[in-house]
Each structure stands twice: as structure tokens, then as C-alpha cells.
Amino acid sequence: MIFSLKILLWYQKNKRNLPWRKTKDPYRIWLSEIILQQTRVAQGLPYYERFIERFPTVRDLANAQENEVLKLWQGLGYYSRARNLHATAKIVVDEYKGEFPKTYKGLLKLKGVGDYTASAIASICFDIPEPVVDGNVYRVLARYYGVDIPINSSKGTRYFKELARKVMNTEQIRDYNQAIMEFGAIQCAPKNPDCTGCPLNDGCLALQQNQIGELPKKINKTKVRNRYFNYLVVVDPKNRTLLQQRKGKGIWQNLWEFPLLESKEDMDVHELERSFNKVLAINETPEIYHFNSENIVHKLSHQHLYTKFWIIKTDTFLKEGVGFNELKDYPVPVLIADFIKTFKI
């Protein structure tokens, strides 16, 4: 039996009951794919359901305020995807009259839509024979065919796309593309895959050559940068604090945070007492103490944030202060959200 048919038979028996598998609506397929990029289904599913409940159509999403979109996205990370999601919804409504393009090339023109997402929407919604290649598909193909070309190299991207095209089932492309992704997520898992019960084990080169743990190959391009964040949590006599919105093209663009003092290395309370007025306009000498004595290490893909929250009690009334009970309404990074949950005035 050929590769694609084995994948399809496995899928019929093992596929998970997921809401986006019950529709061909390109809005819902697009939304699910954007949410599930670098996110496990178990984590992404509640977000998908909340988005659909709040924004059941692309027009609803297009008409939303960015802050509301970012707040719903809070906790998924990669906030540029949420901003692109919102921007693309507006484009679909304004330039395409609320209808997604019905071709692979047309879908590629949308902001934040690359080869994988365009292929998924085109095949699942419009039955266009375009192969999807995500992390799960890379893993299945690399192991079964014994390919050691790095998947994050330009050569690897081209090679695996063509291999995926060669072995795909064009007659059942909608189910096949979902099947091979599901197969990689469940059966051919990254660690400890169930090779003995795998329907592909008789032809899997990685299994035959004892290379399951070595494939797929990946070039390590990530250079991690260490940063030291000191968040200044001001508390005035009315139990209000200060928030500011992050601007620019760095991490967490347009999210909200406490005033931030970034340092080259870890700071102690004496250094902070000498430096806090660089970011706070407080004339008095306030009471300062740290909320966490040890750094909270927040790991992002290219940087590690060593973070301390400093409580600053001031007698100055904050003109633009925000009540602590209002903080829940602001979209903030998970690092800040976790602090808000635990801090008691």
C-alpha cells in the first residue's frame, strides 16, 4: 500500500475531534492555522474557541479594537501574529469584500500568510492540490525517507516541498493534508514515537537505520541574548499604578507594561535607588523593595529576560494612574500577567 493511503487510513481511525475540521470556512481555517503555528493543539484550542465566540466572522474581527485582539491573544506569544491577524482581517474586508482569495497565489498576498498557511487554506477550503509542510510534515517525511538535509535551510525548504508534492494524495487533498499533519503530531511524535504500532514502520528508513532521534536535521541558528528587565511597580496613596504601552518593532509591540528600566546586568536595591528617576518623574525619595529577590527568567526564542519587579511606594498622586483592579483590562505579556495575579497591595 502506498504512503499516502496508509496515512489516510490511519487518519480515519485516529483523528482528533477538532472544531476546524467540521468546516470549509476559510476564515475559521485561517484563524486555526495562525493560532496553531508553534502552538500545541491543547493550548491553542481554547484560544480558537474564544476568538470564534467573540469574532464569529472576519468582519467582526476587522471591526475590533487592536487592544481587544491582543488581550484575547495574551499568553500565546508571538504577538506580531495577532497584529497581522487583525490587519489581514481588515484587508479581506476592505479589499476583498469579506471573501478570502480562492487560489494559493491569491492567499499568499495576504499579510502574515506564507506558503504553509496558504497551502492549508487552499487545500482544505477549496480542494486545491497544494501540499502543506509544517514541523509535523517535515518530521514524517524526513524519517520515512531518511532525509538528512536540514529543514531550516533553503535547500531543505525546497527539497521537502517537492517531496511533499510528489507523495501527496491529490484526489483527497483536504483530508490528506490534515492527515499527515495529525500523523506527525500523534504517531510520529518528536520524542518517543510509537514505532512498533506505526503503519509506516515497514518502509521507514530512519527506523531501519536507527536514526529516529536524529531526524529531522536542523541548523542551530539561534543566538540567545540575555537582557535584564527591572519593572517599576509604582503604588500611590490611592493604590493606583502606572502602565505604558510598548512601541517600536521589538518584542511585545503595543502591549502594556509597568515602567521599565533595562540594565546591562542584575541590579540591587541601591543601584535602583540611584537610577529609578531615569524612567519615573517622582521628586521624593520613595520606599523601594523588590517583589522577587531572584530573577524570573522568561525565555523567548532569541532572548532570555532576567526580570525583577520592584515595588515603589510613593506619596505622590499619579495623574495618569491606573487602579490595580483595572489592570486585567489591558493586554500585557504573560510575564506581567503572572505578576498581576500574585501581587497583593
Description:
The protein has helices at 3-14, 26-36, 41-54, 58-62, 66-73, 79-96, 104-108, 115-126, 135-145, 154-167, 173-186, 205-208, 269-275, 334-342, and strands at 225-235, 240-241, 244-245, 256-257, 260-263, 287-290, 296-299, 303-313, 322-323. The termini are far apart. The protein contains 14 helices and 9 strands. By secondary structure, it is an alpha+beta fold. Helices cover 42% and strands 12% of the residues. The protein folds into 3 domains: 5-9 and 12-129, Endonuclease III, domain 1 (Orthogonal Bundle), CATH 1.10.340.30; 131-221, Endonuclease Iii, domain 2, CATH 1.10.1670.10; 225-342, Alpha-Beta Complex (Nucleoside Triphosphate Pyrophosphohydrolase). Strands 1, 5, 6, 7 and 8 form a 5-stranded mixed beta sheet that branches. A two-stranded antiparallel ribbon has the order 2-9. Strands 3-4 form a two-stranded antiparallel ribbon.
What's this, in brief?
With 345 residues, the chain is α+β, with helices and mostly antiparallel strands.
What keyword list fits this structure?
alpha+beta, elongated, purine-specific mismatch base pair DNA N-glycosylase activity, 9 strands, 345 residues, adenine/guanine mispair binding, oxidized purine DNA binding, single chain
Shape: elongated
Structural class: alpha+beta
Radius of gyration: 24 Å
Output the helix-strand order.
Answer: HHHHHHHHHHHHEEEEEHEEEEH
Tell me the number of helical segments per DSSP (H or I, 4 or more residues long).
Answer: 14
Number of domains: 3
The first-level CATH class of the largest domain is given as Mainly Alpha
Residues in helix, %: 40-55%
| Assembly level | single chain
Number of strands: 9
Strand content: 5-15%
Write the CATH homologous superfamily of the largest domain. Answer: Hypothetical protein, domain 2
The residue-averaged pLDDT reads 94
Low-confidence runs of at least 5 consecutive residues: none
Major beta sheet summary: 5 strands, mixed
- The span between the termini is 66 Å
CATH third-tier fold name of the largest domain: Endonuclease III, domain 1
EC number: 3.2.2.31
Organism: Maribacter luteus
GO biological process, one term: mismatch repair
GO molecular function, one term: adenine/guanine mispair binding
